Protein 1
Amino acid sequence: SAVISQKPSRDICQRGTSLTIQCQVDSQVTMMFWYRQQPGQSLTLIATANQGSEATYESGFVIDKFPISRPNLTFSTLTVSNMSPEDSSIYLCSVGQTAEAFFGQGTRLTVV
Amino acid sequence: EDQVTQSPEALRLQEGESSSLNCSYTVSGLRGLFWYRQDPGKGPEFLFTLYSAGEEKEKERLKATLTKKESFLHITAPKPEDSATYLCAVQATDSSNTGKLIFGQGTTLQVKP
């Protein structure tokens, strides 16, 4: 199994600002995934980050709003840009393909 | 469109009262079906992956089964510490993204002592 560390664990941010979330994995992985879990809802994939290439975004998510970096095989960041209250969610980093997929503890973001 | 539906949304059990959670899925081809447990304020914790109809997996009081249209998570003689939200997710074979998980809404289980 993989151990995934996310920072920060929670934050309260002003609207119009940006927050960068970090995800560190204890082993090298090809693909890292970023999910959003809105209040009372399930997880939705935002984008997939491969090392050395541009992230692939799901329908409804764009790079200008959620820029992603993947500088090496153990680390990725997700930035939530120009935040509004609608961005208040839990953001989760995940690794794994078939067989098993593991998640970090999540970042609980509140935008005021 | 690939879709996952879980029922019930919420379930209250007495300690020792066995029950089952349902996960119905619609995908053109199933690569794998995943079960997770999520405690409040934490990320999902991996439980099982099932790949083909008829497959079963067990872990302590939990047993997951799979058919061509749904999966069940059976909880035998639950304890209060089994209280959590249980999430079901699928990976589809027709997805170009082999790691993408499509999640259901989850079932929130409360086990009373």
Note: The interface with chain B takes residues 1, 4, 6, 31, 33, 41-45, 48, 56, 58, 92, 94, 96-106, 108 of chain A (CB under 8 Å).
Protein 2
Amino acid sequence: EAGVAQSPRYKIIEKRQSVAFWCNPISGHATLYWYQQILGQGPKLLIQFQNNGVVDDSQLPKDRFSAERLKGVDSTLKIQPAKLEDSAVYLCASSPGYSGTFEQYFGPGTRLTVT
Amino acid sequence: GESVGLHLPTLSVQEGDNSIINCAYSNSASDYFIWYKQESGKGPQFIIDIRSNMDKRQGQRVTVLLNKTVKHLSLQIAATQPGDSAVYFCAENGGPFLNQGGKLIFGQGTELSVKP
């Protein structure tokens, strides 16, 4: 089966600019996650969707970050305006959404550099 | 607060040796743990998981040990190969399995380097 797709793979922007990332999860996966991974650290959950509803966005900086999953399939994460500290890899993951496993399938990530 | 930490940031082993990667977790309510492998430029890849009602689980060349008394998790890799070189992360669910909705809290990671 096809894995989690993300685009773009790399993005360089100046601070105060806007940027958007796209994720297409594994077909049929109800749960979608966005993580931020700063260099040398583990992924940190930003937001979790169950179908098209938000389950957890407690660590999403809502003054500048937004995410949507309108049709319960693919998702976009936006940063507006970007700050230098937003430089990181943004990972998207998906899981089937049924109880029994927490295994999440990750995409390759988008590496964002804010200058 | 909720956190998962690792004892060693780097580990270097000789090809063919066994590797042990350690992880300490702080949330005693966590009842599910998972190990991921992340190669450079890629997303994390599932290795093995374990529930808190178990203290050991084996996979292909990997074993996870869970010690709930001291809140410690370890990943053992048998006959380590150059392809095992990567950063390894442990993660916990931070609370009762059925209540957490699939949330994972990741530790900092240990970089494993395998010398040929």
Note: The domain at 5-100 of chain A is CATH 2.60.40.10 (Immunoglobulin-like).
